[in-house]
TrEMBL record:
The lineage of its organism: Bacteria, Bacillati, Bacillota, Bacilli, Bacillales. It is a multi-pass membrane protein. It is found in: Cell membrane. The chain crosses the membrane at residues 12-34, 46-68, 88-114, 126-146, 167-186, 192-215, 244-264, 296-315, 335-353, 373-394, 401-421, 427-445, 465-486, 492-512. CDD domains: MATE_SpoVB_like. Keywords: Cell membrane, Membrane, Transmembrane, Transmembrane helix. This is Polysaccharide biosynthesis protein.
Length: 539
């Protein structure tokens, strides 16, 4: 890999990470502003929007970038420019049509979510919030195509910067808007949530302005490339879009996996709760399951997959080159890094569920119980993302669609019965079963087409599991000893308790990993060089 490509990949990964990091932690001040019950209303609006936007854009940047990079390598720069011009028009039309559909159908969506008059919010209030967020659909598809165009020219900076600026603008408008509506304008919670969801449109405007600035700055260079066009290949627009669709479909399905599961909860959760006479608390429990705890659970998933996914392009290259031994070694490393980072984070969240929930939101026995149940599902989220990416790498992405559909069908069939039995935890159990089935299918396909099995790293997995048991015992002992001295409803004291336990847990875990050579086996010579430098510094 060239240094330019490595640098570009790093910039894009960094931009994505910063954007996700901001998206995870804005919930702390947001929750303080609007309160527990309002998070469910926010989620009622955001889940349909996420589905719409994922279908419209999830695979577009990567698909367009692959297409343009392919023809740029052949010297056919005009083909990529034709795609760009026609794509902008198509995305503008489809974006506006998506907005109209979501805006007009908002009452129908609200009708599916609000099924009992005892619920906190009315269908009209939910429809208002859905309409507020729908405006972002006008801009985001257009913006996603521009990002793909720049990425296809190995220019990752525009995508990375626009993502970060979009997220910052969205969060500032969301927090400031909700605060002003409630505390300055004396508005209602529903109006505050409407402003908070409309922030998606404001963020998109700022992200688009950044991309337009980059376009103006780099147009001269891009036009110079057009002058070098060989003109030897003629590709029709129909063929162009057929190729784009083939590229994009697998990424669309992976991108909408979590939103689809959340959509099932959105349309079935309140119905199931009302059937067992729990309509009064249904909105609150839904908000805890699909917003509050989900935001915490997704943290280790984002961190672990960011590390593991950097190895997937190497797997693709080795597989295409016909090097099965190299593929096996890289897959070993991918899964081991994923589990090495995700499992201890999950164990920590389970053990410290009470202070975690208090630190992020407020003290809640229900929130603590649901978070403790939800935490292990993070491992399944991470495994599905990585196995789906590996299927893409070995050119068997069609099975990603199949495995996801199987998981969705299981979630759909089990959700209502399990919610009736276990309430909030029931929705989590159905999600775990669905994701588990999808992962098993993905692993079987990888075994069949790549000749790879997790049995080859059984020893390392057992070692990771043992270290986590030892770490958990140490953390539990410290937590048990210190818990009586900390207030369970104080955010500051909960954060301090988490920090103390986390430092001790990390020290035990990494000591064992370094002592046994597990860390060096996973992260290679770079880690050894860091250890040598540290030893020299001590001397």
């Amino acid at each position: 890999m060239s240094s330019k490509l490595i640098r570009g990949t790093f910039i894009l990964t960094l931009g994505t990470f910063i954007s996700k990091f901001l998206g995870l932690f804005y919930v702390i001040p947001f929750y303080s502003i609007v309160g527990e019950e309002a998070t469910s209303l926010y989620q009622y609006g955001y889940v349909p929007y996420t589905i719409f936007i994922s279908i419209a854009t999830a695979g577009v940047p990567l698909a367009v970038s692959k297409f343009i990079a392919k023809y740029n390598a052949l010297g056919e720069y005009a083909v990529g420019r034709r795609l760009f011009k026609s794509g902008l028009m198509i995305m503008s039309v489809t974006g506006f049509l998506s907005f109209l559909i979501m805006y007009i159908c908002a009452p129908a969506f609200a009708n599916m979510m609000i099924v009992d008059e005892k619920q906190i919010y009315t269908q009209e209030e939910v429809a208002y919030v859905i309409r507020a967020v729908s405006f972002a659909l006008i801009i985001v598809p257009f913006m996603s195509l521009m990002r793909g165009f720049f990425q296809g020219h190995q220019s990752m900076g525009p995508s990375a910067v626009s993502q970060v600026v979009e997220q910052i603008a969205r969060i500032i408008f969301l927090l400031a808007g909700a605060y002003l509506v409630l505390n300055v304008m004396n508005g209602t919670v529903v109006e505050a949530i409407g402003v908070a969801t409309f922030a998606a449109f404001v963020g998109a405007v700022f992200g688009l302005l950044v991309l337009l600035w980059y376009w103006k700055k780099r147009k001269k260079h891009l036009d110079e490339l057009l002058e070098k066009d060989t003109g030897s290949v003629q590709v029709s627009l129909v063929d162009i879009y057929r190729e784009i669709v083939v590229y994009a479909i697998p990424f669309i399905f992976v991108g909408i996996a979590i939103p689809l599961y959340q959509l099932i909860d959105t349309v079935t959760f309140n119905r199931a709760m009302a059937a067992i006479g729990q309509a009064e608390i249904s909105d609150t429990v839904f908000g805890i399951v699909n917003f509050s705890t989900q935001k915490i659970v997704i943290i280790p998933v984002s961190l672990a997959t960011a590390f593991a996914m950097t190895l997937v392009p190497l797997v693709t290259s080795s597989f295409v080159s016909g090097e099965p031994g190299k593929v096996k070694k890289q897959l070993d490393q991918t899964f081991q890094v994923l589990l090495f980072l995700t499992v201890p984070a999950v164990v920590g969240i389970m053990l410290l569920a009470e202070p975690f929930y208090t630190a992020f939101y407020e003290y809640s026995e229900l929130g603590t119980a649901i978070l403790r149940t939800y935490a292990p599902v993070a491992i399944l989220f991470a495994l599905f993302t990585v196995t789906a990416a590996i299927l893409q790498g070995i050119n068997e992405q069609r099975f990603t669609v199949f495995s996801l559909l199987v998981g969705i069908l299981l979630k759909l069939s089990l959700n209502i019965p399990l919610i009736k039995l276990f309430q909030g935890e029931g929705a989590i159990y159905a999600t775990a079963i669905g994701y588990g089935a999808s992962i098993i299918i993905n692993l079987l396909v990888i075994r069949h087409y790549a000749g790879y099995s997790l049995r080859s790293i059984g020893g390392k997995i057992s070692q990771i599991a043992l270290f986590n048991v030892i770490m958990a015992a140490a953390v539990f002992a410290v937590y048990f000893a210190m818990h009586p001295f900390f207030s369970i409803d104080s955010k500051l004291q909960s954060t301090l308790l988490i920090a103390i336990c986390a430092v001790i847990g990390a020290a035990v875990y990494f000591y064992l990993s370094f002592r046994t050579g597990l860390a060096s086996a996973l992260f290679g010579t770079r880690l050894d060089r860091m250890k040598n430098k540290f030893r020299k510094a001590k001397i």
